[in-house]
Amino acid sequence: MNKGNICILMLLISLFFVSCVIDVSEVSKAESDGTENRDNIDNKGSVQNDESDNQKIGDIKFDAGVGIVRPDKPVIKLEQGDIEKLKIFIDNTNAYKDTFELIDDQYGRVVNEIRTYSPKNKDDEEERSKSSRYFEIIKERLTKLNENNLIEKFKKLEEIIKKSTNGVYDPQGLTTEVDKFKETVKKALETLSTNDAFVAREAADSYFNALHAAIIAYIDTFDTVASTLSSSEFTEAARKLALATRDFANTQDNIYAFRVIIFAVRGLVSEDGDMSMAKRAIRLIHRHETEEGQALLAAIDNLQSVYYKDKL
Fold first, then answer.
1. How far apart are CA 110 and CA 103, in angstroms?
2. Where in the chain are all domains bearing CATH 1.20.120.1640?
3. CATH code 1.20.120.1640 for 84-230
4. What span, in angstroms and rounded, lies between the C-alpha atoms of 249 and 88?
């Protein structure tokens, strides 16, 4: 090999060596930058916040902004902790169901009799409402509604709701309607006369408004609990069920609407997703052909489907 060729070969080897050194240096720098970036992310709290949020989401104490569905919430499966949280909700609200049904059982008939014997409006003073016999019935039923025991039961519903979310959800609508009911009954007893029996009808209507508010409070509490679960898909399905139940409750007797949402929630937790009782309850009262009934049936089917799909 002549001297010129040897020089060229040495030059090529030198260039190759320099190139390798540069490549190794760039890789080391990139790895160093990546580590620094990750450290910066940790310091800023993004990764730490995700871990913190997961802990809060799984905590029944609702420390993580209950009721707010984050747009960036990842679509993941329901975890066992989520199922346990729903079970805790059911356990915490068992007394709510019992108290609600006790109110309806003890006072529903009383209210219906007031509505039967009192005029529908101020211009509809029927003769029967002016008779002494019917007047005494109305007065007696109003006195029954004025019992402290009834107000205490309504207040118990408020306390159960607050306790089930550790005070995060405040059933203000229920509180307002219960206070209105108390005042309306008191006013009706003070102003009731054979010529003004309509005030009794107003008291009866106020009772139903309070019961309706109790249903909405339960629905909203379930929606609040569902919003803290891992699966954003389940959270959205639960929200649709809550909205559909609200609409259904606006057109249906309170006790039936309440049983539908109770059966739906309990079916998920206690019957491993079997919500057939909720759907049967809608059909038994012949509401499955109404717009609200169909929307609620669709929401139940959707939640059931998501539950089976997302459950680990």
1. 11
2. 84-230
3. yes
4. 25
Place of tokens 């190759």: 16
- Rounded to whole angstroms, the Cα distance separating 276 from 260 reads 10
Which of 224, 255, 214, 213 shows the shortest CA–CA distance to 86? 224
The most distant pair of C-alpha atoms in the chain lies apart, rounded to whole Å, by 136
Local confidence pLDDT in tens for the 312 residues of the chain: 554 554 454 544 454 444 444 444 444 444 444 444 434 433 333 333 333 333 332 333 443 334 444 445 565 788 888 888 888 888 888 899 999 999 999 999 999 999 888 877 666 655 555 667 888 889 999 999 998 899 999 999 999 999 888 878 899 999 999 999 999 999 999 988 766 778 899 999 999 999 999 999 999 999 999 999 989 999 999 999 999 988 888 876 667 788 888 888 888 877 766 888 888 888 887 788 889 999 999 999 999 899 888 776
DSSP string, 159-226: HHHHHHTTTSS--HHHHHHHHHHHHHHHHHHHH-BTTBTHHHHHHHHHHHHHHHHHHHHHHHHHHHHH
How many Å apart are CA 106 and CA 51, to the nearest integer? 49
Residue 311, φ and ψ in degrees, nearest 5? -70, 130
Give the predicted TM-score (pTM) of the model. Answer: 0.72
Single-letter code of the amino acid located at 102? L
